[in-house]
Amino acid sequence: MRSIEKRRKDFDARGVKLVAISVDPPKISRELCRRYGYTYTFLSDPNAEVIRRYDLFHPKAGRRGTDIARPAEFLLDSDGVIRWRNLTPATIVRAWPETILKAIDDLRLAPSPRRVLILRLLA
Questions:
Q1: pLDDT in tens, 17-56
Q2: Which among 15, 117, 7, 26 has a CA at the least distance from the CA of 72?
Q3: Count of alpha carbons within 13 Å of 16, Cβ hemisphere only?
Q4: Nearest to 27 by CA among 10, 46, 8, 5
Q5: Once rounded to an integer, what is the mean pLDDT over residues 57-66?
Q6: Which three-class secondary structure string do you get for the chain?
Q7: Which CATH class name applies to 2-122?
Q8: C-alpha angle with apex 95: 46 to 22, nearest 5 degrees?
Q9: Residue 81, exposed/middle/buried by CB under 10 A (0-12, 13-18, 19+)?
């Protein structure tokens, strides 16, 4: 996530809004953003509704039996259509910013202020 933050301007230049979604309550996400200097949007999904919709829910697979989300990144267009995704089997493997930016460029989408990259579905 830090590598994504470092490349924030590259995502902004492509009209991509970065969003992270977590089962953590907002207070924990705010603390994470404060501690690491994340400036993009963090959303709380405490009931894992969005995470379940994307079929990424892993009940009791986290530390101490907590519910977590399978790591994933999605690029949604302004109509909410998934244009690119990265799904990984391991909780520590993520797409590098360069990989995501290349995927955006390969799609040859014109910059759009409404395009959203659901950057991370977090544990």
A1: 888 888 888 999 899 999 999 998 888 888 888 888 888 8
A2: 117
A3: 31
A4: 46
A5: 79
A6: CHHHHHCHHHHHHCCEEEEEEECCCHHHHHHHHHHHCCCCEEEECCCCHHHHHCCCEECCCCHHHCCEECCEEEEECCCCCEEEEEECCCCCCCCCHHHHHHHHHHHCCCCCCCEEEEEEEEC
A7: alpha beta
A8: 5
A9: exposed
Tell me how far apart the alpha carbons of residues 117 and 57 are, in angstroms, rounded to a whole number.
19
Domain ranges of the chain: 2-122
The partner residues of 120 in beta bridges, in order of sequence, read 20
- What's the confidence (pLDDT) of residue 38? 92
Q: Quick check: 17 and 43 in contact, CB under 8 A?
A: no
Tokens at 57, concatenated = 């829910």
Contact predicate 97/7, CB 8 Å: yes
